[in-house]
Fold:
Amino acid sequence: MDKKIGFNSKKISRREAISTAGKIAISAVVAGVVAGVGGYYAGSAAAAPRTVEKTIERTVTQTVTAAERTVTATVTAPGTTMTVTAPATTVTVTKTVAAPAARPYEGVKLTVLCHTGVQAGPWHAYKEDIKNLFGIDLEVVEAPPEELYSKGLLGLKSKPADYDLVQFNSAWIGDFEPYLQPLDEYIQKNDPGWGDVLPGFRLFRNMWAGKIYSWTLDGDTFMFYYRKDLFDHPEEKEEFRKRYGYELGPPKTWDQVRDIAEFFTRKAGDRLAGSKLLKDFYGYADQAKRGRVYYWYLFRWIPYRAAEEGGIPHYFDPNTMKPLINTPASVKALEAMRDILKFSPPGVLGFEWTELFTAAMSDSVVAMWIHWPDEGDRFQDKLQPLPVESPPKPQLGFCPVPGVEKDGKLYRYTPVDTCWELGIAKNSKNPEAAYAVLYFLMRPDNALERVMAPTAKVPSSNHDPYAYSQFYSPRWRAEKPWVGPFLDAELEALKNPYPLLRIPGGFEYLDALDLAVSECLAGAKDAKSALDEAATKWEEITDRLGRDRQKEFYHKMWMVPLVF
Amino acid sequence: MGERRTAYMFVLPALVLLIAAVIFPMVFSINVALRKYDLRLPTEDYPFVGIDNFLRAARDRYFLNSLLITLQFVILGVALQFPIGLGVAVLLSRFRWRRYVLPAIAIPVLTPPIVAGYMGIILFHPDGVVNYFLSLFGASKIPWYSRPDTALITCVLIDTWQWYPFIALILLAGILSIPPEYIEAARIDGASERSIFRHIILPMLRGVIAVALIFRMLEMLRVFDVIYIVTYGGPGTATQVTNFYSYLVGFHYWDLGYAAAMGWILVIILSILVTYYMRAFKVS
Structure:
């Protein structure tokens, strides 16, 4: 238990100290009154001693207006006593409490393996604080993402583990599970805010077979973006209603996306938003380069398959592990994806993150696209005006990824990306100390700094929000007033989360799908034969890695209370 | 005996380095190639499977396709880079101020391949420099590296931009090392410049050409960077060369045994080709 104090101990400012003392005093008074100690009748009453977990460095004197009665309470802090007296209308707290407790892990050395570059920013930013608070010497080992798997896995397998803390992709959990420390018991003792994490991240990323194996570092998901300045233009709204018979607005279905994409695809010299277009303009764009185009297919596959199944769709038949990526609805989803390419910029098959961002945000030649939250929570103010002679003020719109409507029901999900997590090595020599570091980094105040980065404290992170306290943060919303509506939209979108594949071989499965999608979009194969071939490849992978074992992992992936 | 021991002592550091850096990794990779060495399997004792990984490669459509694409890449690359390099070398050999031009010509070679890849994206972007010049002749925008029929040639062009100076420099060194007496004697005998080039310079460059082509061919057979940056093997499998495919298998699928087997197959093919080249050019 002595180490528990360590988690919460920190040097605090005079203002914080006064505030803390005030809170303690008020709590003591309230406790005294509520306990009915009878201060009023007996002249004085002593409340039950109470353990204080905050360590205050200075003598604090604070007068707080309180009830009309005098209450005296005694508060016990480690090694000292604090007396709270409440005469007629004031509460006076006067006490010098103990100096900071000894740093609980003095001399302990921990190693963390993390993603190189900006993702490593928070570790460097907090390294000194971790030393000051806990006495832990933290060695930060950075690795590029493609090395994190092998380094992480081999490092975790070592005895003792090479790394006490590991940043890993949630897709690797099947492989990492035997070497990771379940966090349930730690969280039960000292919880940095498990309930604060959105269910989509908690259930589909941090949990595995019903246990907690990690804490989200980066809340990656996907949002649908559109040019609000264009969608709100009265001339465009009127014209769209005439042509399609319904109101122009953020699309709810993929059919609507197609209509709107067709509507806004225009040539230089045409009219757009009430004035002359200076460049060719396109209705919609995907990040369609080979490598990650499978995401953009899954954005369609999930709702098409959901409509086909009448509920949350499966990647595999859970009983036989037969792939379900080449069903009629899957083929239809791929055909729809290829169809919409007609309304995309030339070269869209070569679009990766930068190309899509540039076309949509910098060149402003795309009306709609789907991307990670970066545009919304970091770069919204980077949106350039439309390429027309008299552009309206640039405005970015956002909504959940569209769905598919069937029999009057809308099937619409937001994919929760497999992304960066923090876990503790089972073979760590100091799991308690490692958890102290995890706790510190995930504490709401520090977590907010990470997702808000760049801030004065954390210059870089590329971490996206994942907890309610971040989405509702008054500070974030005050410092970047444009971020509020986006955070609201993302929160709304994440009410219907859908997990990406997280079983061993996940990347190989998805890469086979990626190849099929890429071949189809490139015109090398039709949708059916491309997906049939991907399904065959999935079967091969399953057999190679062991069908029963894969089935077990697939069940573990879904074994979360929300779904079953 | 003392002298012999001293001699061994001198050789020892090089021997240790050779064993550590070359022989051990080679032996280890053969060992890996003969096992089901898959990091995703819940074992640390990866079973010996003999030549299964090699047989798997022989049945793997993507691997066979990647060999074909690699071959296309090499043939197209050599077909472009050799004449350009040779032409530039001949021009430079006659250019008095070449010492001032050479550093500028060598710049692409000094560029890291990753940077060359990004340069290629800028050059061949639909709104890039190449399309701009083509548009002056009325051509419409070509999405060079994102169309299956132009993606491979785009990668070859980027590779050519980076590496033709290498061939040019080697051949230039070869041309300059030809004794001028041969050429002067031919001129006195009335030989035309074309004849001199065909019957004196080219034959005397045979060894140098072989070295330049072998170097380039080996480099091109193990092309990776430009593909990784520009196309990531796509669209579809249009540019999925063997090295890129084995990278995916090894470092994304973590099937290291199979990736090692593919590597060894490539090594065997390379050895055969190099031997053939050496014989064809009569290089000893």
In short: The longest strand of chain A covers residues 59-65. Chain A touches chain B through 36 residues (CB under 8 Å).
